[in-house]
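A favour between colleagues. Tell me how you read the following sequence-structure pair.

===
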Amino acid sequence: MIYRVLFSITLLAMAQSVAAVPPEATTPSEPIQEVAVVGERAGPSLWRVSKGEHVLWLLGTLDPLPRKMTWRSREVESVLAEAQEVLPSNPSVSANVGPISVIRLYMQWRRTEKIPERAHLRDWLPPPLYARFAALRDRYDPHDTHIEELRPLFAARRLYERTLEVSDLTAKNDIQEAVLKLAHKHNVAIRRTTLRLQDPRGVLTEVGEIPRDAEIGCLTATIERLETDLGSMQARARAWALGDVPALRSLPYPRQHEACLNAIVNSPQIKELVARAGRDWNAAAESALDRNRTTLAMKPIYELMAPDGILASLRAKGYAVEGP
């Protein structure tokens, strides 16, 4: 469990969840507004990808979502009643390590996430950037002193999460986990792709060697997003909860993979892990279409809808694609 949290969530999810903002989208900081979506919500309708009589239903997930929302989709429950398999979005990360190695990895991780030689962010960041960071920290989490010890890559993730917590948003409203619980209830097989780490200590060593400028680029992009995009994040969360896909398409969406992913893939091993995870999921989705009459799969909604995204790729390969 510790191992999966350290690597699959902290490394891979950080690569996908801390967003970069286009340079032109700079506006003054906006006041916090409540998302005001409460109660039971279904989210968007499913996309239908078919090959003959075989159908792959795709649920587009979103992070963050309204904090007070309870998700329930009768459409998803109806599909699960007929499905042979569910394909989760995230891979299962594994490695052949024993208890002593896990402890060593954890200690190495704790060393890696901190700035070397007991320095602080103030020492690493240009003064104007540090002033912007400090203003956000003081606004959204004024009592967090530990963040000053974190390298920019990890400080970016921590600042992002704290801001969500006080903005009526959450990254913990996990739609995927809810779907997997329903799959167990309906006795539907779960076929999760597997990402095996051959050299976990080497991965952490490479993380510690990411260039400082690349890490600062990630933190800069995160600061820009929190300064300019919080209102749009709330609007996207509201649109997802209400199933308003046209609104999701029309809202400007900063690409999640640019600055922070570029920083992380300075590590050759992590670059290959991220690429392999994408290839394996695509292969698993097509295999499920060939093998099953009905499959339910999940992916972040903007990965589905992107011009070069999953739906476009499946359509280009000759599959019939229908959706909201």
Remarks:
- The longest strand covers residues 54-61.
- Residues 2-322 form one domain.
- The chain has one domain: 2-322.
- The longest helix spans residues 268-291.
